[in-house]
């Protein structure tokens, strides 16, 4: 593996891990696993009170990436303004697709899930599983918006909700 790939991430960098969202690299440690010495990124997810160790050689292969650019954040927020696209498939099938999009770590896909599952006050209630998926996607989106734009999570959530409610008013 080339040196440039290995040093793509550094301690104190914020990164996006597909299955867990935004975390911060605490350190790069060496660990012995099954008799092999492996270099590991130690990533802390403060909100989940979780620490994850990812082999440096496999980080990009696993889908770990740097935070999005402010431009991509703007595009994701623009996606929220669009009309919800709900397929006519069974809920279990759609739920699976939403789950895959959330766990892909792709900001645009996560924004699509938030857009598609958002309900304004005058719309019908969400089912429990719909609400869970919506909140998971919203959480991932707001955490990345907060980290990129430099807001706290509350401020980022407010910004995302303003975009969603402006869509409902239009």
Task: Give a description of the structure.
The chain is an alpha+beta fold and 170 residues long. 49% of the residues lie in helices and 21% in strands. The protein contains seven helices and five strands; from the N terminus they run αββββαβααααα. The chain has a five-stranded antiparallel sheet with strand order 4-3-2-1-5. The N and C termini lie far apart (51 Å).
Concise synopsis of the structure shown:
The chain has 170 residues and is of the alpha+beta class. It is built from seven helices and five strands, in the order αββββαβααααα.
Radius of gyration, Cα only, in angstroms? 18 Å
Largest sheet: 5 strands, antiparallel
The chain-level structural class is alpha+beta
Low-confidence stretches: 1-6
Terminal Cα span: 51 Å
How many E strands? 5
Mean pLDDT: 87
Helix content bin: 40-55%
Coarse shape: globular
User: How many H/I helical runs?
Assistant: 7
Q: What percentage of amino acids are in beta strands? A: 15-25%
SSE string: HEEEEHEHHHHH
Strand ordering within the main sheet: 4-3-2-1-5
Feature tags:
single chain; 170 residues; alpha+beta; five-stranded antiparallel beta sheet; globular; disordered N terminus
Task: List strands and helices in order, with pairings.
Blueprint: H1 3-6, E1 14-17, E2 21-33, E3 36-45, E4 50-55, H2 59-62, E5 65-66, H3 70-80, H4 91-104, H5 107-117, H6 128-149, H7 153-169
Antiparallel strand pairs: 1-2, 1-5, 2-3, 3-4
Helix pairs in contact: 3-5, 4-5, 4-6, 5-6, 6-7
């Amino acid at each position: 593996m080339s040196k440039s790939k290995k040093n793509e991430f550094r301690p104190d960098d914020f990164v996006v891990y597909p299955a867990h969202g935004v975390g911060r690299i605490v350190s790069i440690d060496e660990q012995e696993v099954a008799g092999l010495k492996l270099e590991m990124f130690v990533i802390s997810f403060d909100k989940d009170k979780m620490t994850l160790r990812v082999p440096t050689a496999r980080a990009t292969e696993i889908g770990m990436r740097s935070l999005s650019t402010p431009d991509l954040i703007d595009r994701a927020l623009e996606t929220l303004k669009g009309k919800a696209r709900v397929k006519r498939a069974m809920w279990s099938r759609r739920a699976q697709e939403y789950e895959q999009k959330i766990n892909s770590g792709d900001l645009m896909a996560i924004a699509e899930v938030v857009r598609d599952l958002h309900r304004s006050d005058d719309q019908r209630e969400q089912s429990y599983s719909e609400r869970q998926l919506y909140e998971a996607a919203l959480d991932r989106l707001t955490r990345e918006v907060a980290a990129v734009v430099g807001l706290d999570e509350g401020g980022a959530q407010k910004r995302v909700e303003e975009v969603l409610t402006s869509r409902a008013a239009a």
